[in-house]
Amino acid sequence: MKVAVGMNSCSLAAGAQHIYDHIEKKLKGSEIELKKVGCVGMCYREPLVDVIEDNTSTITTYGSVTEDMVDRIFEEHLMDGKPIEEWVVKRDWYEDGVRKTWDVDEYFSKQRKLIMENSGYIDPESIEEYLENRGYEALKRALKMKPEEVIDAITRAGLRGRGGAGFPTGLKWKFTREATGEEKYVVCNGDEGDPGAFMDRNILEGDPHRVIEGLTIGAYAVGASKGFFYVRAEYPLAVKRLTTAISQARKHGMLGRNILGSDFSFDAEIKEGAGAFVCGEETALLASIEGRRGMPRPRPPFPAQKGLWNKPTCVNNVKTLSSVPWIIRNGWEAYASIGTGKSRGTTIFAFAGKIRRGGNVEVPMGITLRELIEEVGGGTEKGVKAVQIGGPSGGCIPERLFDLPVDYESITSTGAIMGSGGMIVLDKDTCMVDVAKFFLDFTVKESCGKCTFCRLGTKRMWELLDSITSGRGKEEDLHELEELALTVKSGALCGLGQTAPNPVLTTLKYFRDEYTAHIEKRCPAKVCRDLIKYEVIGEKCTGCRACALVCPTGAAVGERQKVHTISIEKCIKCGRCYEACKFDAIEIKDLGAEQDG
Amino acid sequence: MVKLIIDKKEVEVEEGTTILEAAKKLGIEIPHICYDERLEPTGSCRLCLVETNGVLVTSCTYPVREGMEVVTENERTNTARRKAIELMLSDHDVECITCEKSGSCLLEKYAYELGVKPAHKEKHVYPIFKNELFSLDKNRCILCGKCVQVCKDIQQCNVLDFAYRGMNTRISTPFNREFKASGCVFCGNCLSVCPTGAIVENNRKGKGREWELKKTETVCPYCGVGCSITLHTRDNRIVKVSSSESSLNEGWLCVKGRFGFDFVNSEERLKKPLIRENGVFREATWDEALSYVASRLKEIIKDHGSDAVGGFASAKCTNEENYLFQKFMRCAVGTNSVDHCARLCHAPTVVGLAKAFGSGAMTNTIEELENAECIFIIGSNTTETQPVTALRIKRAKAKGAKLIVVDPRKTELAELADLYLQINPGSDIALINAIMAVILKKGLEDKRFIEQRAEGFEALRAHLLSLDLGDALRITGVKREEIERAAELYAGSRRSSIVYCMGITQHICGTENVLALADLAMLCGMVGKESTGVNPLRGQCNVQGACDMGALPEFFTGYQKTDDEKAVEKFEMAWGTKLSRTRGLSIEEVIHGAEAGEIKALYVMGENPVISDPNSERTIRALKSLALLVVQDIFLTETAELADVVLPAACFAEKEGAFTNTERRVQRLRKAIEPPGEAKEDWRIICDLSSRMGYGMSYKNAEEIMQEIASLTPSYNGISYERIAIKGLQWPCPSKEHPGTRYLHKDGFSRGKGRFYCVNHRDPAELVDEDYPFILSTGRVLYHFHTGTMSRKSRGINEIFPGAIVEINPEDANRLLIGEGDRIRITSRRGSVVANARITERVREGMMFMPFHFREAPANRLTNDVLDEEAKTPEYKISAVRIEKCY
Questions:
Q1: Which B residues, 310 through 329, put their C-beta within 8 Å of a C-beta on chain A?
Q2: What percent of chain B has pLDDT over 70?
Q3: Of A35, A508, B48, B215, which is most buried by a Cβ count within 10 Å?
Q4: What's the distance, Cα to Cα, between the start and end of chain A in Å?
Q5: Cβ of B84 under 8 Å from any chain A Cβ?
Q6: What angle do CA A24, A29, A33 make, to 5 degrees?
Q7: Chain A contact for B166, CB < 8 A?
Q8: In order of start, what are the domains of chain A with their CATH numbers?
Q9: ipTM score for this prediction
């Protein structure tokens, strides 16, 4: 029997280290092996502890594990062999060598694991475990193919860039291969910067060798001898595990001179980002690797023609590269058979926001948004209003469009973009104008400052939104906002600027009524502080003083057992009284009407 | 070629052309701010957006494609452009009524053209970041980034860059430190590309609006690069200086060329002739002063002969003036003793290269350096002495050229070099011989070139092979591998260019040093081809021209020899007078002659030997012993202070004429303003004086003088004002149809075959000993020029570099308990000065360096006036000194 503890960043945040230490103590002297694995994607149930049967390899997963639970699992399951069924959240078993999964939430039933096949199952710091799971088999196979054949397989598989733009990967490789120049580079873009996105981190932490294998195959295909992993420095664990994996790969002859005894030599190193969102944009990323300020430059020339140090360079996202080994191993036909239309294979989303099941999911292209959000993600408590897909560059898709399939073209048709996989689910309590402002706030701060439209345009848009959400907006502001947004979208230099207006444009498109309401000094979701007030409902107030005790400004006052009041002048609308009241005696009301009156 | 359609018109352009350039070909101007054809396009301002295939693209970056259709202006592009301008204005300090740039500001221009009004938005308020010469007002900056590019790619100083993000992005020095502490060299090239009033000269503020300024295209009066400059003047004052993008220097200037012009309008300018009476000067009329000089000269000639008179012409005066000066000395006075400060610098070049090649000038062109594969820089601190030439070298390096720098002092280029050889001072011949020996041993010489184009190779070969490499290592102090690497790089590249300067010539073996370099170039066939050659960098705006004009004792114009009877007869015929056959004296010979009482009178035009000549005490003694010293200058220089008569001259901005730059290019100098007071052009003064001496000279204007020069000088035959109106012409230009000569010796050397010379290392005249344990070298710094007469009048420049310093190695400083800035006394066998210590590893242990620009600490009090036998150039680079700290 073996015990495995999920030890990715999400697990550690949930306290996995304590659980691991506790189990280690318990297992001292026993023959039961304890190991660390990555994240299987069920972040909402971390910490996760697996008990693996020796003979059948059946895995029983316990979720939200505490130290007390460990004690009982130890006694009953490990010692006596009796699983504690009420705590089991997932179970994996093998039929004819194929892994089958059951889980209590039916979280996995619509998922299809290609990229994440090893995540949460193998020890990310062990190349042996990766090798046992058919690791580097694709590289071996690729090295026996001609580079053109590798490119052909990727092209036929229909793999498209998972960084968000969806450019056909095979074509990008072909361009790089055909570009003139003896020296070429490949770069793995791991600068995952969208707020609420953590797909790349999960892969890098949970299965780093897969990324190395993908990049190496890419290097072979395009004819590069040097590669870079650009990973943001805010991902220390990913950097650490990738560093370990690179040195293991070198020792095993998967990187370095004459890889696997072939004529092909290739090596790669990590370049840590310095905390700039714009460095996810490929030309800025390349500038950063070169040691310059991370600022994008216009394309063409594309990096495939002129990239790092003006040499042809192929930049691919972590998920794209992680798909490559599966395609080479299983054949392009198998990959192409998954998905829909021009979007083939699977993709990974990171659920965040008000959704019940926050985590990473890998689903086949073509699944509908409704299936994805409601069935896989479990919806939200208060009812889904919209989803912000693709981070600050993406857009808000309203619930009524949820029957659309998830593919590049359909998502783009809504005005949003597929993006790299961030999916922030918004419920009825969310103000859409406020959401637009939130995302714009991010791009305003992260704009590199190079081009006029992005540097100044986003800021001026933000100012208009700020004025609208604070009740100072006028009808003509909407027109100005829309015109500015469209100009920035069509005129900005790089992807960051060109997509920054998307949250504004999509909310204007689908939730214009909310904008209009703000112009009329109402926030329908009761979020925008300048447009609301907190009031005590006299009939319900028991005079318990809970509100007065938490109020930071002394706005909520009242004597014990008498009805309390909240002073509009003093109230800063932090909402703490609202949360503290056990009798629902505080309500949020529109401020606008009264002010006018 | 690619065909495309722009605004419904077909155009065919080369592949790789951008839409903006293609449109320009059709005469369509696309609005742009951040684009500059000298810089890599960045597409940051977004003004040049055009529509193609339904999308907006920046025409400055987008390459043309076959069959593409482009619309440069429609509602969509106009909306985008208007929005872009609106956004720029929304964070711009719209103060056009007080802004210096108004009238030439691009933001103002496009706001006007597109009809955009400034909106009232929240703006940044940044403090104005001012340095000694210019100010950066970030409130006016629209972040086009051109200044950053210029600083990074052109000047390669990396002082300016973007800092912060988004709306808070701004141009900044590293950590917002002062410019001076950030490695800024104050070239002001950032300022020249700024489209708004964000970076402007401090000096110009309040002196005139753009449209009130008169523009005059002329040539910079400082070093020998000969940058084109535009003087912007108003009310007879220089308001600012710029340079045209289409000039040879591409509009780039250095700190002196952009900011060093306060001297022109200085209150200290000489405005009236002065005559010394009872030991003090009094103002005089021209008539009085010139009559006095003429009669005194005539007396002296009568009593002591013509050869008792000497004349120093000027490398800062025009060709026409130098021509007249030597004509005056030869015809009106009757002596060949006319010389000028080329004697103190590149006389060994003139002699040496004439011996080896037949012509003593820079063989190639500055521009060609950019395409060299290897540049061998020896004894030249190019970034400081010819800053704009250094830009080409830096760009060559950026393009992949290999840089070899040989210098006892670790200069800026040494830091940048692929190979830096820090040789012992005065060991150049040992090094070059060793490099040549390695080349021969490795068989890297150009056998074909040697056979076809040169003579004397067998002797050289035997000489080189007889040398012991071990000796060379000991003498030079460099490693065997370094010598081998230098040999491989120089001989192994397809185009190798030698660049040298005072480090080669200012030695007792200066001429031999030059011969060694000529040997090296011929050995590898690196002469007579593009981007190769032996390239002496000349130090003054018209030092080449003064030489060309025969302001040398041994030559008439165009190096026609004064000991060649045929030449003498030719000039006698042209000038209508009998000429002297006696050998003339060089500068130092005149000074020594004066000391010995053989020279009685000296006429100095625009030179300042008290500061510039070696062993100042002796120079002063000599000048004081003269019966008559006449100094014609723009200021009362240290030399003028000793004069009997001082004649006020017009400066470069106040006259017409021509300068010849370091690459033999004859360029037009144009008058922008009137001279102060009664000051006159030098050529008018000479004419007047000559006529009073009985040798009539009358010219309507400078152009007439140039016509005479052209008619008498084969290499200038084809040169006329008309032909040099725009970019000048490089001599030899033998006929009116001749396009000028980019590089010399293409099909044959001027002397037929090139000649190899065998030269041997010689120890410097003065070696260190117990009493004088340090070697002192002298030279220039970036911020000042020659004797400081001009550059030190510029307030800003003088603030940046206010006074004399002496560089000393940290080890030596430690040992002698000397701290940075300490006052130290430096003493040689000839004199003593006090300067502030600058502790730096640029000089090695046992060596010191001192600039010679400063009258309060004249380095030339220390220098040794021992001469190179052939060229008569003093050994400025090596004096033995001792130092002590002043308390």
A1: none
A2: 100
A3: B48
A4: 73
A5: yes
A6: 55
A7: yes
A8: 2-109 (3.40.30.10), 132-333 (3.40.50.11540), 343-427 (3.10.20.600), 432-519 (1.20.1440.230), 529-596 (3.30.70.20)
A9: 0.92
